[in-house]
Amino acid sequence: MALVLLRRAWREADLNFVGLIVAGLFFAWSVTPSLLPRDWLFQGLISGINAALGYGVGCVLEWLFRKLIRPRLTIPAPPSWVIAAVKAAVLVSVVAGAGIMLVQAAGWQRELSALMGMEGSTTSGYLRTGGLSFLVAVGVVAVFRTVRALVRLVARPLNRWGRIPRSLAPTVGAVLVFTVAVTLYNGVLSKGLFAVANSAFSVRNDQTSPAAVVPQRAERSGSPDSLVLWNTLGSEGRWFVSQGPDAAQIGLITGGAAREPIRVYTGLESATDPEAQAELAVAELERTGAFDRQVMVVVTTTGTGWVNSTAAAAIELMYGGNSAIVATQYSYLPSVLSFLADRNKATQAGELLFDKVHEHWAARPEPLRPKLLVYGESLGSQGSEAPFTGLNELREQVDGALWVGPPNSNRLWGQIVSRRDPGSPEVEPVYADGLVVRFGGDSGDLARPDTRWVEPRIAYLQHPSDPIVWWSPDLIFSRPDWLRERRGSDVSSQMTWRPFVTFWQVAADLTNAQAVKAGHGHRYGTLVLDGWAAVAPPPGWNAQLSERIRLALDAWDVHEQAVK
């Protein structure tokens, strides 16, 4: 009975052995190092998808050989026992090769973890990748076979009743199935999925950390004096306005006189539409006297409305609280989902807020204007770039820009990096000899090259190992410069580009971008302090003050992680 069931399962599996060979090759490539260390779970998911892709490529190659080349060969077909032996050898080789590669991969992962000061996986634990990859690959292939069966089901009536030739009916059926699927996705499913996601995350938006309490200082949105109601700010907005240093803390850390810093924020529920949100934010700036401060920062948030606490506190400490920060929320969704569904909202929010603020700022006499800076991190940097068509317009309208971990799709970032000076690598580009724009993965990078950096200054912070910076659909078919040129200091020398494989590897890294130590991946820590100090240093700025502020920022970050 068992033998009968085994034979039936073998027939149902209908394995393509050329597909198995290519699947094994894709699996082997997929366990080579990527940008970030991966545990067995992440590696199993990505390797399973890659193996399924390889299986599909192998099936296509075998079909082409069978249709185009085999009929022209006069070589007789081998005996059935030879075919059976070859199939057995393929199975054994693929399984053995996968095991060998997993053992090797565990060592690579430990090396990559060591580059980032982390503890790597054990070899025995990493072997679980193989089992999960198998299940994922089977699932992907099963989905494809289901779609193929649906195409054949559609092709039969097309041939019988539509009088479409039998040879052409499957192609027409595939086009119909694809068209219906795309139409449903774009017209119904995507909207439905993102509507459900938006609804789910809107519940989270209503939550408030116990550590976030209604601010009593008039300089904060959501306070009793504010034009913005506390309960409309959203979870991230309530955190932003309730936290951060006050004048007393700033004075204690810097050793000088300090003012209460201004934090203005409007949530999705604070006004009826994005334009009204931006207008309300400007009204709050006027109410708090923000345009009389020494520095004003316009922040474009990430998807949920998050503002980097370290970046905000850094500028407030640097300027002794003589500062104002303004931000708005444009989505309930986390950045990854916002990137897919709400990217236009990020750019719209960035443009509206900056344009409204700039209009009021420019109307003041020049000697009475605060220094105007823009800031954005991750998807927020994309929205923060949106108001400007190019560097000239940017430099005409702001006194400095700091953008952190920019996505590879950022328009302005892409223009600058593609025009970098010859000989400078993509991970550490030099543009126009560092005259206007500079890039940094650590504090020392922003001081290079040793030439004049004119004001207003623009800086991008980007780690060589940050997948948000380097992920792009182009990875499917072309090797990027950052893998062709000199590698970054925390990128494995064993990482190589492979079609399809590298795309999925770096895509998987996106979900793990902050699961590393500060200074790697998408964790920039107090490097934002160095970024602000390079772009807009206040009078009297020095190394001793920088170090005192850095220690305070580190302590607050630990506290925030514990209580938020």
TrEMBL record:
<dbReference type="InterPro" id="IPR027787">
    <property type="entry name" value="Alpha/beta-hydrolase_catalytic"/>
</dbReference>
<feature type="transmembrane region" description="Helical">
    <location>
        <begin position="126"/>
        <end position="147"/>
    </location>
</feature>
<feature type="transmembrane region" description="Helical">
    <location>
        <begin position="168"/>
        <end position="188"/>
    </location>
</feature>
<dbReference type="InterPro" id="IPR027788">
    <property type="entry name" value="Alpha/beta-hydrolase_N_dom"/>
</dbReference>
<dbReference type="Pfam" id="PF10081">
    <property type="entry name" value="Abhydrolase_9"/>
</dbReference>
<dbReference type="Pfam" id="PF15420">
    <property type="entry name" value="Abhydrolase_9_N"/>
</dbReference>
<feature type="transmembrane region" description="Helical">
    <location>
        <begin position="42"/>
        <end position="65"/>
    </location>
</feature>
<feature type="domain" description="Alpha/beta-hydrolase N-terminal">
    <location>
        <begin position="32"/>
        <end position="245"/>
    </location>
</feature>
<protein>
    <recommendedName>
        <fullName>Alpha/beta-hydrolase catalytic domain-containing protein</fullName>
    </recommendedName>
</protein>
<keyword id="KW-0472">Membrane</keyword>
<keyword id="KW-0812">Transmembrane</keyword>
<keyword id="KW-1133">Transmembrane helix</keyword>
<feature type="domain" description="Alpha/beta-hydrolase catalytic">
    <location>
        <begin position="262"/>
        <end position="548"/>
    </location>
</feature>
<feature type="transmembrane region" description="Helical">
    <location>
        <begin position="85"/>
        <end position="106"/>
    </location>
</feature>
<feature type="transmembrane region" description="Helical">
    <location>
        <begin position="15"/>
        <end position="36"/>
    </location>
</feature>
